[in-house]
Amino acid sequence: MLRRRDLPLPMTISPEAAEVAHRADSAPHRWPLTPRVTAVLRRRGARERQEAVTAIARRLGVDVTASQVAVSSRGSTVRSLVMTPAGPERARDAGEDEPWVFWVHGGGFCWGSALDGSAVQLAHDLEVPVVSVEYPLAPEHPFPAGLDACVAAYEAHVAQWGPRVLLAGLSAGANLALGVLARLRAAGRTQPVGVLAATPFADLAGHGDSYSGNEGRDAYVRWSGQQERFARAYRGRTGADDPFVSPVHQVWGEPPVPPTLLTSGTRDLFLSDAVRLQRSLRASGGDVELALWEGMWHAFQNDTASPEARECLAETAAFGRRVLRLRG
Questions:
Q1: Cα-flanking dihedrals φ and ψ of residue 283, to 5°?
Q2: To which H or E segment does residue 179 belong?
Q3: Which three-class secondary structure state does DSSP give residue 255?
Q4: CA quadruple 274, 183, 302, 101: dihedral positive or negative?
Q5: What would you measure as the largest C-alpha separation in the chain, in angstroms?
Q6: Distance between CA 303 and CA 158 in Å, rounded?
Q7: How far is the C-alpha of 298 from the C-alpha of 172, rounded, in Å?
Q8: Taking a C-beta distance cutoff of 8 angstroms, is the pair 276, 208 a contact?
Q9: Rounded to two decimals, what is the model's pTM?
Q10: How far apart are CA 257 and CA 273, in angstroms?
Q11: Strands 165-170 and 194-198, how do they pair?
Q12: Which residues of the chain have pLDDT under 50?
């Protein structure tokens, strides 16, 4: 089992990224994903996350409030948080719908929260509100509970805020965001104006080349068999080849998918997922970009200490401004 300082790193990454890699830690993911153990570890991490995200929001000048839109999915209320950037309102053309972002957090379907630093960062970078959904987590709530909640929350917020929305997520959240897109298309609903899938966890069978090629090389998802345990906890009795469980198997067809940005790194355990997604999404006739960073690992953009992460966030923001038609 690797110790943090044992991870060999390429000479082609920045010194700052090397330091981030050495302190990256997903040690809690080694624990069994039983409801009891997971609940205990979530409680232990909740206060730390609250403090960390509150500090980020305060530094970036972003207000975090509970969503005023109440929706129901399978008989339960889905809670969301709204990240609102402080300062003057961004200019937009008269009569246009309000631009906003629907964000789905990561955490292997079993961890994480709507109180998410990436959502705060995106609100700051785009200067538009970001709705972050609190979907039910596995293993207590296996597929399709999380996806059902995300679809319900998305549709409720579109009904109130309008369709000028960027649909976005990271890791497992990118999986769920793509699932929302597929559900919308299957139902003939209006698509979002753009899609962001950051380091997507999109093949729960783990068949891609990077699952073996980057095993032990990803600075974050470094524990042997880590992704398989999360996949089993989330999909329950549903097969890993179900296209709503693993979006790499989705056949997108017509009409073209909205403009889409996929991000990853050459050491991301899920790099193959992003590569395969780009090809399948582009087959619909959509404009789909895959942006890669040398030597970077899963969810590397979460730590802004490295220039690679800052560059990724800048490209993400430029994409968001383009699809949301933001001026300035």
A1: -65, -20
A2: helix 172-186
A3: coil
A4: positive
A5: 58
A6: 30
A7: 11
A8: yes
A9: 0.94
A10: 17
A11: parallel
A12: 1-5, 91-95
